Structure formats: C-alpha cells, structure tokens
C-alpha cells in the first residue's frame, strides 16, 4: 500500500488540479433552469456534505482539501459514488493506506463544468448517441441514452450507472451513483 508521503502528494496534486480550473460564467442562468432538479443556494461542497449516503465522498473531499475548491467559483459535476458503492470496492480500499487510491477513484468521477441532465440529454440528441467527457483523473466517461434513462460509464470500464435526480448548487451538480465507475487497481 501507499505511504503517508505519497498520500499527501496525491491529495495536494488533486486539490491543486481542481483549484487551477478557471470559471467562465458563460450562462449561469441557463445552468440554473434545468428541469431535472431544483437549484439550491448551496455550494457543491455543502451539497456533498449534506447528501444522503455520501459520507465516504464527503470525507475524501475534506481529506484532500477539495472542500475549499468545491466552495469556490469554478463549476464541477460530480458523479458521487454512494457509501454502499464505495464499500463494494472491498478490502483493498479500506484503511488509511487506501486513501490515495480512493482519491484517485474520486478524481475519475469529477468533470469540470456545470452539467445538468438536460445539458447531457441535449448533447446526446445532437451527437451520434453517445457523448464523452474527460474527468479530472484523465479518464473518459461515456454517456448514452436508453429511452428516458441516461447512463454513464468509463469508456474502458464495465461499470455502468444510471443518472437519477441530481443536486444542483451555485457552482456545481452532484449525481449520486450506485456504482463506482472505474476499474481502478489500488496497487497500480
């Protein structure tokens, strides 16, 4: 497993990478008018902290210093694995030694920008049936639509999540997902 120094280096890199993103308020009003969820006056950090079943993501966010980044102006969309989904990763992802691996998993679930379900659906309708987005962990998420359901998976992974009700805040959107979208190797 990874040592404390490597954990701190990874956590610092994650926080720095997120804080380096700039925010270009192209159309904040349009982002706030999505039909899929009610707009909250809370920040992304507060949404995650108060979200049911998101304690693991909240703890990782706080450990990595992301709470400050998620309280800032830069918008992010987080596909937040529930506590149950994170626990299903198994014993390789338990304890303090696993924190760096869990932070890497979290990065694979964060996309820069404010993406409502309506934004994703509109992109799917304009495209060829799928849309790809780069995560902060430099992985690619692929979105598809089957009827009314929008699904997301990592392009090179097998895990698929259906997007449900989002939580929309002043600087981001959270989609609780019931699976971890990455096939991340904690030893890798």
At CATH's second level, what is the architecture?
A: Roll
User: Hey, roughly how much beta strand do the residues contain?
Assistant: 15-25%
**Helical segment count:** 8
Main β sheet profile: 4 strands, mixed
Radius of gyration: 16 Å
Strand order of the largest sheet: 2-1-8-7
Low-confidence runs: 1-36
The pLDDT mean sits at 80
Shape label: globular
Could you give the distance between the termini?
10 Å
DSSP E strands, number: 8
CATH fold type: FAS1 domain
Q: Which structural class do the helices and strands define?
A: alpha+beta
Overall domain count: 1
The CATH homologous superfamily = FAS1 domain
What string gives the helices and strands in order?
A: HHHHHEHHEHEEEEEE
Task: State the helicity in percent bands.
Answer: 25-40%
CATH class assignment: Mainly Beta
Could you explain how this protein is built, in words?
A 4-stranded mixed beta sheet has the order 2-1-8-7. Strands 3-4-5-6 form a 4-stranded antiparallel beta sheet, covered by helices on one side. By secondary structure, the protein is of the alpha+beta class.
Summarize the structure.
The protein is of the alpha+beta class and 188 residues long. The protein is built from eight helices and eight strands; from the N terminus they run αααααβααβαββββββ.
